[in-house]
Specification:
By secondary structure, this protein is of the alpha/beta class. It contains 14 helices and 16 strands. The strands form 2 sheets. Strands 7, 8, 9, 10, 11, 12, 13, 14, 15 and 16 form a 10-stranded mixed sheet that branches. It has a 6-stranded parallel sheet with strand order 3-2-1-4-5-6, with helices on both faces. Helix 2 packs across helix 13, helix 7 runs antiparallel to helix 14 and helix 10 packs across helix 14. The longest helix is centred in the middle third of the chain and has 19 residues. The protein is globular, with a radius of gyration of 25 Å. The structure holds 6-O-phosphono-beta-D-glucopyranose (BG6). 6-O-phosphono-beta-D-glucopyranose binds next to helix 10.
Length: about 525
């Protein structure tokens, strides 16, 4: 199988607009990936570095050092990454017979994460020797793709080994921390304290890959780059907002053990769904800059109010997928306890209790093994007054819906009422659609490409700040507290939209879950 063309080796220049994102050789850092033998590195991280390199955003000569416990030679590591690129890279398939030119930049270093600082110093010496030989400046981007219990110990040891010094004018050190960042409010705060003991906030990049998705960033463009839509994001016009993160996959034979300790609320709501909520609900920032945007997101999270005064089943429903369609039920998945009560689906009704959004319900739902894979944010608007139509006996207009389709079939769509041709005056909902695929004939970069490039360039706009993540955990922790004496998750049939009980969240409101 082939995937790199010889022309790729000449590294085509990024388009003129993109060229200011190109990293010059003397500004490039060594990328050090801890936990490189895990799934994420092979599926996402190495392909992301490859695509950035191939598109000319990175210099021709780079160094990526994979770190993990297993013993492995550079040659073995390169061969494995070559296979991973063939499987998972979005570009480059079928163009050449060899991936040598890229994987020659990859190196492997075996290290027990819990080893003492002396072992970490050996890693440091190897990095320095490599950087000196290649004439690199010595800046380093450490990417923690390990299991979460190692985030703090690895960072502490890097600090103790003197590898996290950060000089504004000289070589820098940054640390990207994967999710899950903590498992509740207290553990997230503790992790932030551990990181801050050896790093300053500007060195820490807490990742949520949803923020790197093109369509998620387009929410900013849509809201802030158009005069006509932004005023509509307001309780005067919006009846309710729905955020759906639905997946068809289950545990994929490998995630059961992790997921069973986590569940849908902590796996997806704490991060991806609440981040989407922030982008749709936040005030326009003073400047399009990391601090301003993160300040506004924090205000949204601080305003989130859960309707604790209402019975739990009217604002929160948990589900767990049953057996069906020839697939095992959740409790029969590898790594899952046979009597597990972990939720694979959760739906919530909550409020952003501020001036702009007063009284507007936000409905969030996420689940595994659902009817289709779709991530969407939809704003349903209030119905127009209909007195003038009452004598016609016609159907009433459907509410307008503005939807952001994050994935797949990335699109923005606005439905409105139109009169179908004919003598009779009728109202029918029609849609105005903007589709990425049609409007821009361009492959969308993967989220990890964008985020890795931003971390290398020192732009933390699309990463989460400590206070944001802690606030999001406080929301999720208070939901979990409310579950303590609550009934167990409802079983739902795989390939559906979750337990029918979730419809209760709309009781007394106009609307229902969108059929997607
Ligand atoms: C991850 C969750 O953060 O996001 C997974 O841990 C989930 O359970 C994944 O499948 C979804 O990401 P995407 O990009 O496929 O929508």
């Amino acid at each position: 199988m082939s995937f790199i063309s010889t022309t790729a080796l000449q590294q085509p220049s990024p388009s003129p607009g993109d060229s200011r994102y190109r990293i010059a050789a003397d500004a490039m850092a060594t990328i050090v990936i801890f936990g490189v033998t895990g799934d994420l590195a092979g599926r996402k991280l190495i392909p992301a570095v490859y695509n950035l390199w191939r598109a000319g955003f990175l210099p021709e000569r780079i160094a990526v050092v994979g770190v993990a416990r297993k013993q492995k030679t550079d040659a073995e590591f390169r061969a494995e990454m070559c296979e991973a690129l063939k499987k998972y890279s979005r570009t480059g398939h079928g163009e050449s017979d060899t991936c040598d030119p890229f994987v020659a930049n990859l190196h492997y270093h075996s290290l027990e994460f819990s080893a003492d600082a002396a072992e970490y110093r050996k890693l440091g010496e190897r990095l320095s020797a490599m950087e000196q030989r290649a004439g690199f400046a010595g800046s380093r981007l450490f990417y923690l793709a390990t299991s979460p219990e190692f985030f703090a110990p690895v960072t502490e040891r890097l600090g103790a080994a003197g590898m996290l010094d950060d000089r504004p004018e000289g070589p820098w050190a940054r640390v990207v921390v994967e999710k899950p960042f903590g498992e509740d409010a207290a553990s997230a705060e503790a992790l932030n304290r551990s990181l801050r003991a050896v790093l300053s906030e500007r060195q820490i990049y807490r990742i949520d890959h949803y923020l790197g998705k093109e369509t998620v960033q387009n929410i900013f463009a849509f809201r802030l780059g158009n005069a006509i839509f932004e005023p509509l994001f307001h309780h005067h016009y919006v009846d309710h907002v729905q955020i759906t993160v639905a997946e068809t996959v289950g545990m994929e034979g490998r995630r059961g053990a992790f997921y069973d300790q986590t569940g849908a609320l902590r796996d997806v709501v704490q991060n991806h769904a609440l981040q989407l909520l922030c982008l749709v609900a936040m005030e326009p920032p003073a400047r399009f800059a990391a601090q301003d945007i993160r300040d506004e997101k924090l205000k949204v999270l601080s305003s989130v109010a859960l309707p604790f005064g209402d019975p739990l089943e009217t604002w929160c429903v948990r589900g767990q997928y049953a057996e069906g369609g020839g697939m095992p039920g959740y409790v029969a998945e590898q790594g899952v306890a046979p009597d597990s009560k972990t939720e694979t689906y959760v739906a919530l009704r909550l409020y952003v209790d501020n001036w702009r959004w007063a009284g507007v319900p936000f409905y969030l739902r996420t689940g595994k093994r659902m009817a289709s894979r779709v991530t969407e944010i939809a704003l349903q608007f209030r119905r127009p007054p209909t007195q003038c139509f009452k004598d016609l006996g016609v159907n009433l207009p459907q509410p307008n819906v503005l939807s952001f389709r994050i994935q797949p079939d990335e699109a923005i769509s606005l439905t409105f009422s139109a009169k179908p041709p004919g003598m009779e005056f009728l109202l029918e909902p029609v849609a105005m659609d903007f589709r990425y695929g049609t409007a821009f004939e361009q492959d969308l970069p993967e989220a990890y490409e964008r985020l890795l490039l931003d971390a290398l360039r020192g732009d933390s706009t699309l990463f989460m700040r400590a206070d944001e993540i802690e606030r999001a955990w406080r929301i999720v922790t208070s939901v979990r507290d409310a579950w303590k004496d609550a009934p167990l998750p409802e079983l739902y049939r795989p390939g559906t939209w979750g337990p029918p009980e979730a419809d209760r969240l709309f009781a007394g409101c106009q609307g229902s879950w969108r059929a997607l």
